[in-house]
Write a sequence for this structure.
């Protein structure tokens, strides 16, 4: 078996007596489209925060392309190709769309710390940012401050910033959360068209979306992996129906 | 896919064009030069205003751009003032090298204190910045053998500038000296805030969580700008020491930290020119009010500040912006 893009081994995190991540063994294959589902409070976002380094695990290993990154800072993990989006928009609200993406690309290219003689490098960064906006079809909003955009458009900027990092592994935390259905189709479409070489882990509540996108699905319940498998296996699993699929009618 | 009509500047051009000098940006300098010729008897006050503009400008870099709220900026002003003062009182009377030393010492204090306290946020950080001022104030007070303590530092000897221009009793040399230093600092600050480094500071202010998530070394950037700001504040303090040829304990007090914060907020933080508007406005108001109402002048200053923070969050420049915006809308 080839080396996975991302792997966790016996990953644990507890706050006092409360285990929010419970011995999670997880593999994200290179170029995978993998969904992470589970009821509210199952620890999905916590899992992402552990992988990215926003939270420190109590124990366990996190391997990015085979390298243990559990002891590294958030920055160092990003530099190694780990990108993420946030469930709740986490944007530079007062800055333009173009500049939101420019900031990310400047960090990736290593020019973001420069003060002197940076005009040429900064132009290249901004041009790459604009090209990305064109590809995502949000270029007409390039100069608008993010806070003036409708929420659905802001969700696209959320993804654009992460793509500006050219990640090898992309963690999408409910990319279509809070977006009305017609606009969520645009976001879905974007996620479907992501470059094939990026390994994508997507947290999502919308089952139609999950079954449309994912090749594999992991079900998380109370901080632990309940089951992992193909969409067909998950759909047929009685335990999953019980804890999760049965609940979706309440949405 | 996107087709734009020809000859319209691209959004990239518009983004980068911000760095270009606009004509209005020469206005402060034109005024400063005009003051030199028009009000020769006010030059000592003018010099002090220039120094406060520099001090407020240094604060704007960390408060307005990086979003570090501090009540401790007088620490660096004080270190600079005492460095320049102690050198000049002990035989090192050449002013420009004294000023460089003032900036360097303040910068060192900035790196060391910043490295420690910038790991904290919010009220903790605010208290720590304040603690640094209190500690340095007490150190300056106790080290009377070198600082003069509560009596102030006396016996400074400042040589003519470049060996040619004596610091005259009318304050002409002092004014032009302060103006030249402020100009250089402004050139640097302007370059900085429009650079990728400066924009990343704005990113930290806007959303520090996202900056971490895009791989920005946030702590290192904050320490860097804190130190740069400290250098400029130290130079401001050094200028005050050299041009007044005295240093009092008041250079490193909570009041001075608070005062400069008020000046910056009054002018408008995070826009580079708030310092150029707020410091003169505050000091001229202080000068006028103290003469016309020597008992209650501080009350009027307080009232002014209350009105600004309640109704004009962007300070005076914010009001100007709003007025221009309104005028443009009405014309349409």
């Amino acid at each position: 078996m080839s080396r996975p893009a991302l792997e966790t081994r016996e990953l644990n995190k507890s706050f006092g007596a409360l285990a929010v991540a419970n011995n999670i063994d997880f593999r994200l294959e290179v170029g995978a489209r993998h969904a992470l589902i589970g009821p509210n409070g199952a620890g999905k976002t916590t899992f992402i925060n552990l992988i990215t380094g926003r939270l420190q695990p109590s124990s366990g290993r996190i391997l990015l392309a085979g390298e243990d990154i559990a002891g590294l800072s958030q920055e160092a993990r990003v530099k190694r190709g780990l990108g993420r989006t946030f469930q709740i928009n986490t944007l530079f609200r007062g800055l333009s769309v173009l500049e939101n993406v420019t900031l990310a690309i400047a960090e990736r290219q290593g020019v973001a710390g420069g003060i002197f003689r940076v005009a040429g490098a900064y132009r290249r960064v901004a041009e790459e940012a604009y090209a990305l906006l064109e590809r995502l079809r949000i270029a007409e909003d390039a100069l608008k401050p993010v806070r003036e955009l409708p929420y659905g458009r802001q969700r696209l900027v959320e993804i654009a910033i992460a793509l500006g990092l050219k990640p090898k592994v992309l963690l999408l935390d409910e990319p279509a959360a809070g977006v009305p259905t017609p606009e969520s189709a645009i976001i879905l479409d974007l996620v479907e068209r992501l470059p094939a070489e990026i390994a994508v882990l997507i947290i999502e509540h919308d089952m139609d979306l999950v079954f449309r996108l994912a090749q594999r699905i992991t079900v998380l319940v109370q901080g632990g992996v309940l089951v992992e498998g193909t969409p067909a296996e998950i759909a047929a699993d009685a335990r999953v129906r019980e804890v999760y699929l049965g609940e979706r009618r309440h949405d | 896919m996107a087709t734009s009509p020809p000859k319209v500047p691209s959004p990239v051009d518009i983004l980068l064009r911000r760095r270009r000098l606009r004509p209005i940006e020469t206005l402060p300098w034109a005024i400063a030069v005009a003051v030199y010729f028009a009000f020769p008897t006010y030059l000592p006050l003018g010099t002090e205003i220039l120094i406060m503009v520099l001090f407020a400008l240094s604060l704007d870099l960390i408060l307005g751009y990086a979003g570090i709220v501090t009540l401790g900026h007088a620490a660096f002003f004080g270190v600079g003032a005492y460095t320049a003062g102690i050198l000049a009182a002990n035989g090192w009377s050449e002013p420009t090298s004294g000023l460089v030393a003032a900036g360097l010492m303040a910068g060192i204090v900035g790196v060391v204190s910043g490295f420690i306290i910038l790991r904290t946020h919010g009220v903790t950080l605010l208290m720590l910045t304040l603690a640094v001022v209190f500690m340095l104030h007490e150190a300056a007070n106790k080290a009377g053998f070198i600082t003069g303590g509560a009596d102030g530092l006396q016996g400074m000897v400042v040589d003519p500038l470049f060996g040619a221009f004596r610091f005259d009793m009318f304050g002409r040399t002092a004014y032009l000296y302060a103006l030249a230093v402020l100009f250089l600092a402004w050139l640097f600050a302007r370059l900085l805030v429009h650079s990728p480094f400066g924009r990343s500071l704005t990113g930290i202010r806007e959303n520090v969580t996202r900056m971490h998530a895009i791989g920005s070394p946030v702590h290192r950037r904050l320490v860097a700008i804190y130190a740069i700001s400290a250098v400029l504040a130290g130079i401001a303090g050094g200028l005050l020491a050299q041009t007044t040829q005295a240093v009092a304990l008041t250079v490193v007090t909570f009041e001075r930290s608070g005062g400069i914060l008020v000046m910056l907020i009054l002018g408008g933080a995070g826009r580079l020119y708030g310092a150029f508007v707020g410091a003169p406005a505050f000091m001229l108001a202080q000068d006028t009010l103290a003469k016309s109402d020597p008992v209650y002048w501080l009350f009027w200053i307080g009232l002014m500040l209350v009105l600004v923070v309640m109704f004009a969050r962007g300070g005076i420049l914010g009001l100007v912006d709003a007025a221009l915006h309104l005028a443009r809308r009405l014309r349409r």
DSSP finds nine helices and ten strands in chain A. The longest strand of chain A covers residues 18-28. Chain A has a mean pLDDT of 90.
